Amino acid sequence: MDLGPFEADNTVSCRLSSQIPDICRTEDCCLGIDEAGRGPVLGPMVYGICFCPVSKKQELKDLKVADSKTLTEEERERLFHNLDEAKSYVGWALHVLSPNTISTSMLQRTKYNLNALSHDTAIGLIQYALDSGVQLKEIYVDTVGPAEKYEEKLSQRFPGIEVTVRPKADSLFPVVSAASICAKVARDRVVKGWKFAEDLGDVDADYGSGYPNDPKTKAWLLKYLDPVFGYPQFVRFSWSTAQTLLDSKAVTVHWDDDEEDGEKAAKRLNNKSMLSFFSASAGSDDQSRQTHRFFTDRRLRGLSSL
Amino acid sequence: MSCHSSVTHLHVSPVGQAERVPVHLLPCEIEHNGPAQVSQYFTATMKDHKGVKAVSFRGRGLKGQEICCPAGYTGLVLKDTNKPGSDQEDRIVRVSSVFDKLTYWNLDNPPTSDDTVVMAMDWPELAEAIHEPIDE
């Protein structure tokens, strides 16, 4: 697994993939989808697909792939190695969603929630397999959300393919277990070797599992909190754990789409800031004359004090 | 305010020697007045794709571009040399640094010529035209 393309720029998302086995272009195939790193406040979320001919299902099962969560890191690495050995009939692809992509998507003006982001990523990976010529007939998906709706959505999007969405699919279908191993191995490696885009010198890499309830993760989040910038892009700002810490320990930042009650906002805007000079509504100057639209459009105002 | 009895003195004499600094105009209000680790967190993570810059601040995606101060104008960063204790005391403001271009940032949206700060730069030229003495 070459993580180079992602590590070259870990602020954006990236697709990594194996060679497509020739047999997958000629025989009917099954495909499994799973994700790794949905819960953590640190690092990327990785979506994985794994596929093989329907006729090779037993062989895949014999590789003893299992739900990645029940395995140790060493076992996962070993099983990933086994999958790689089986590359004549097993293919995989990953979509690494960088923490910065997760933060900026979820915190867009028009919010893009994690479920929608997950579904779109899964759809993108299935489409990638189809575009690469994989003869897909069966798709198995692990889900944390409501399975029926998701199954319906995928079935409509990919007519002619039998879609099965199940909670815990990673322990029921070997091809989903295989996908979960690929995703988890990639996530672990990315987190372990994270290169901070920020210029922070040597960053303490003892950040634990990245789950909000891990004491090491908590301690790391306290240590690396900057009062103005908050966190490096390694942290998912859209997680309530990060938001809560920033609300209590960092300086307050106001955005024009904040949900803030009118009175509070008005009071705040009377304290002149740099931005208030560009703001149409700010200030309480008595305006005896109507300001021309030329100025209001440009948010220009006469300045009588500093 | 104009009704106060104090006077604000603006010392512009050091403009010639003042350091030229990069300036960023963010689409938010930060309740902080003072130093910040701009180069470590912000400049280090800035991207430039065909003149459109991208960065994120507090997990929100920003797109920006550089604009120049209008011809003949210089941007000033001002600092109070002493914080007046009361409204009655005079205030002395000094030029701490200068800039002739700045980078302004929009939340989510790429910069366009309709952005207010871009349009605001029209004013000096227009002001000059309408205030120019009329030749007989």
What does this structure look like?
The complex is a heterodimer of chains A (306) and B (136). Chain A contains 13 helices and seven strands. A six-stranded mixed β-sheet of chain A has the order 1-4-3-2-5-6, sandwiched between helices. The model of chain A has no long low-confidence stretch (mean pLDDT 89). Chain B is mainly beta and 136 residues long. Chain B has a single domain, classed as Lipocalin (Beta Barrel). In chain B, 14% of the residues lie in helices and 38% in strands. In chain B, strands 3-10-7-6-5 form a five-stranded mixed β-sheet, with no helix packed on it. In chain B, strands 1, 2, 8 and 9 form a four-stranded mixed β-sheet that branches. The longest helix of chain B is centred in the C-terminal third of the chain and has 9 residues. The model of chain B has no long low-confidence stretch (mean pLDDT 87). The interface between A and B is large, with 45 and 38 residues. Strand 7 of chain A pairs antiparallel with strand 4 of chain B, so a sheet runs across the interface.
